[in-house]
Amino acid sequence: VNAQVLRSKVAVFAELYRKGRALELANTALLEEVTERRRAESQLRELNDTLDRRVIERTQALHASNIDLKRMESQLREADKRKDEFLATLAHELRNPLAPVRNAVHIMQLKGPASPELEWARDVIDRQVQAMTRLIDDLMDVSRINQDRIELQREHVELAVVLHGAVETSRPLIDECGHELVVKLPVEPLYIQADPIRLAQAFMNLLNNAAKYTDRGGRIEMRVVRDGSDVVVSVKDDGIGIAAERLASLFTMFSQVEGALSRSRGGLGIGLALARRLVEMHGGRIDARSEGLGKGTEFAVRLPLATQEHAELPEKKEPAASASVDGLRILVADDNEDAAQALAMLLEAVGHTVRTVFGGAEAVQMAAEFDPQIAFLDIGMPQVNGLEACARIRAQPRGRDRTIVAVTGWGQVEDRRLSGDAGFDHHLVKPADPRAVLELVAKLAARP
């Protein structure tokens, strides 16, 4: 035996054994790794299946939620639409009984002075009718503003003219509460681009708010100050004041300083919200300040001044003088008999010849027989409504020569459009101001 060869061969066999053993161990480890990887892949598949299942479930839940949200949105839209329809109908139904009351008060005024007690009663009725009319108008304005259905009729106007209109409207309430009103205007005229009626309404609400929340015999001050390119109008009172925690919600719709059961100041809690929205529509802002309860409140309205202060203003038209001609032939049609008769008495009191009917079909027939120069028609009459009656009267001989006026509780923009399309010349919202009615008739009488 060659020892060297033997050692060499044993070494080779030993190395082969070690390599085989290492390979066996490597194969075992590889098998374990493959098994572990397969187990991991199985777990991953299970996790993916679980995730897929949860995604499908979540997607189905979201889809169901979207369907529910769309159903709720549709229900809310329908509820909002019905709410607006309800407010419009409510305003119509509330305005109808106010119209004859207001006309009756004016007839009492036309009949001359009465006893002090009757004059007091007449003035009380007149003030309360005006208050009810303002509340109804505020309700309708809130609905229109929320739907962005108010369009401002802007013009170049002096701010003092707007404030004068607000003060005139609020003066009866301020006087009734026994307050002192002080108005401080700058010497220089200040001009703004604004809708004078809508902006005056905002300031009227601030003045009314000050009057209601100031104890009898208080002081209200309206001050106008120019601040660069803006003008600041402040309305300050020495009334009940506002707690600091209530200032943030002061301009919230239907917000009340006093609780519903304890408050005695009246109102619906929409005047300040309406004032802020109208001011914002004019590019301004309104802020409230109060040092606390019992220390009064101050509202500051900031508005941009017109860029051209010396722009040419529209000519002021003189009010039409009363016609010195014989009375006109006037037809009044309203299914509310009190409203029709009160308006007829008002017109007869100033010398006009009036025929009164209580339905649309009767109005058409009377127009053919009586040949009126002016016809006042209610729109919401049964069977033949005012729109259809107007169209039929227009189709009669001389129908195009007649002036037809809608006197109705429906006063929204769409209502005015419909009355115009039907052939009405004018649209008056109940309770129409008797002075406005007489002025309109006087202008029509003065025409050739």
Query: Helix and strand string, N-terminal first?
Result: HHEHEEHEEHEEEHEHEHEHEH
- Which percent range describes the beta-strand content? 5-15%
For the biggest β-sheet, the strand order reads 2-4-5-7-6
What class, by secondary structure content? alpha/beta
Whole-number mean pLDDT: 82
Residue share in helix: 40-55%
Q: What's the number of helices? A: 10
User: What value does the Rg take, in angstroms?
Assistant: 39 Å
Main β-sheet: number of strands, strand sense, barrel status? 5 strands, mixed
Distance between the termini: 155 Å
The oligomerization state is single chain
- Number-wise, the strands total 12
- Mass-distribution shape: elongated
Low-pLDDT parts are 259-265, 313-325
How would you characterize the overall build of this protein?
The chain is α/β, with parallel strands linked by helices and 448 residues long. The chain is built from ten helices and twelve strands. The strands form three sheets. It has a five-stranded mixed β-sheet with strand order 2-4-5-7-6, with helices on one face. Strands 9-8-10-11-12 form a five-stranded parallel β-sheet, sandwiched between helices. It has a two-stranded antiparallel ribbon with strand order 1-3. Helix 1 packs antiparallel against helix 2, helix 2 crosses helix 5 and helix 3 runs parallel beside helix 4. The longest helix is centred in the first third of the chain and has 108 residues. The protein is elongated, with a radius of gyration of 39 Å. About 4% of the residues have low confidence.
